Amino acid sequence: MVELGNLASKKLLQHLAYAFRRREIILRSDGKVRYFAISPWMSISGLSVAVLSLIWMAYSSFDYINLSSQIASKNQAIWSAQNSYRQLLDQVAEYSKSIDGITKELNETQTQLLGHFYKENNSVKVANDDKATQQTKGPPIRKWEQDKIILGKQFEVIGQELRRMTGKNNALESHIGNLRGNLETIEAEKAEMVAERAAMGDQLWNLNNRLESARIKEEELSKNIRLQGVTLRNLMVEKGQLEGINNDLRSQVARLEASLEEEQLQHKTQLKIISKRALKNIHRLEKVLNRTGLDAEKLAPLPKNMIMGIGGPFIPYHPDMRDMNEREILESGLDVNLDRFEKLRDVVIKLPLASPIKRGYVSSHYGRRKDPFNGRWAMHRGVDFVAKYKSNVYATAPGKVIAVGRQGKYGRTIDIRHEFGLVTRYAHLHRYRVKVGQKVALGQVIGLLGNSGRSTGPHVHYEIRRHKKFMNPRKFLRATRNVQ
Predict the structure, then answer these.
(1) CA atoms within 13 A on the CB side of 25
(2) How confident is the model at residue 116 (pLDDT cuts 50, 70, 90)?
(3) Residue 103 CB: number of other CB atoms within 10 A?
């Protein structure tokens, strides 16, 4: 039984939840669609207000009908009382008429009796005067006494009738007073009931106004519902059309997703290839720097917490990387490699790695050698390039000319300052093509090959110094074999 009760309560709750479920009203105007949501509590509130309004209207109508019946009964009672009052007035009028007639008759009788009395007194006087002469006449005196006795009895009857009529008149006046009091009470009750009826009429008028307003609102709501129904049907048609379009779009999206997956796979492959190429170039440029004898870590320092080695740059793990996919990781690694490559490339293109002549050969290397003039061992701090006399001499790296002129046994000399504290010297020249303070580019002609100074023949003496310390130019020249 408990389970059945629980099932029934669950079903009831389900029905209530379905009846008061969330509803949406869709309005479409001017090409725009608006949605108005009606929550369950708003539906419950609206139903509650409608039910309470109906209950109040039913109660007011019942109370009005009851009051109308009471007023009708009171009106009936008042009409009955008024009818009774009119009947009593008629009876009083009749009694008054009868009393007036009786009073008139009594007055006439009294007048007759007084006349008869005066007449009798006169008769008595005459009789007394004639007493002496008519002592033998007894019968007339007896007749007068009999009439007097009869008249006294009539007076007694008339007095009783007057007393009876006076009592009845007093009773009628008392009854009329009571009826007047009751009538006044009924009139007061009638006035109260009329006032209550007027109040109820006002309430009914207000109720009718509210009902009329509710009816107008209901008509407007019905009109809106019809319009919404038309709009909803149009929207359903549009929804069907949109579903077809959506299906087409879904198929297109599926094709695009497949194509995107293929492109992403190709992109990942290309990222890997480019990253490997960048890493290969990084190693090549690092090898160039190492061959020159320069410290690559100082010229192109690595970012903090990063080392370069086999397999590419080491990127420390960060908690934010747990949400990165493979493509993002590859792109991040590629960015690191490209940044490293660009930094090394910028360093390499600023180093004096080129040859100062286009065609020729090296006649004397850097280091220990026998002096060509005295045959004794000496330290040669540059490289001698032999070429055609007056051939062009080129700048081996971009820089700024800091010295032009004769430098003792160097003869005609040009000194150029480059990046990273490097200075190149070109000696034994025939003529200058630049001047002090001039900026030169890689491969720009700076002079002509000659035989000035302490020289045994046409050549150019080429030196590289870094922070006033001599470096072997051959290392820089050999490093160019690995530069593309």
Answers:
(1) 12
(2) low
(3) 13
Contact criterion met (CB below 8 Å) for 285 and 299: no
Tell me the CA distances in angstroms from 161 to 93, 99, 158, 165, one per residue in order.
Answer: 19, 11, 5, 6
Report the interhelical angle of 139-292 vs 40-129 (nearest 10°). Answer: 170
- List all residues 6 or more positions away from 342 whose beta carbon is below 8 Å from its beta carbon: none
DSSP string, 291-359: HHT--HHHHSPPPTT-EEETTEEE----GGGGG--HHHHHHHHHHHHHHHHHHHHHHHTTS--S-S-SS
Identify the helix (H) or strand (E) that includes residue 393. strand 392-394
Separation between Cα atoms, residue 311 and residue 308, nearest integer Å: 8
The pLDDT assigned to 57 comes to: 85
pTM score, two decimals?
Answer: 0.44
Residue with tokens 């019942």: 62
Determine what percent of the chain is predicted with pLDDT higher than 90: 21
**Strands 23-29 vs 32-38: parallel, antiparallel or unpaired:** antiparallel
Instruction: Take residue 276 and report the two structure tokens written for it.
Output: 């490997």
Instruction: Decide if pLDDT at 324 tops 60.
Output: no
Of the candidates 5, 404, 33, the one whose C-alpha atom is nearest the C-alpha of residue 234 is 33
Q: 179, 166 in Cβ contact below 8 A? A: no
Give pLDDT, residue 36: 62
DSSP string, 88-124: HHHHHHHHHHHHHHHHHHHHHHHHHHHHHHHHHHHHH
Phi/psi of residue 89, each to 5°?
-60, -40
Residues 6+ apart with CB under 8 A from 169: 95, 99
- Please give the Cα distance from 475 to 345 (Å, whole number): 18
Residues 393/394/396/399 CA torsion (nearest 10 deg): 120
- pLDDT tens-digit map of 19-43: 777 777 777 777 676 766 777 777 7
Spatial neighbors of 326 by CB under 8 A, at least 6 apart, are: 268
Q: Strand runs (DSSP E) across 11-161, as ranges?
A: 23-29, 32-38
Q: How far apart are CA 232 and CA 253, in angstroms?
A: 29
pLDDT in tens, 201-229: 888 888 888 888 888 988 888 888 888 88
Alpha carbon separation from 211 to 197, 201, 414 (Å, rounded): 20, 15, 111
pLDDT at 314 over 80: no
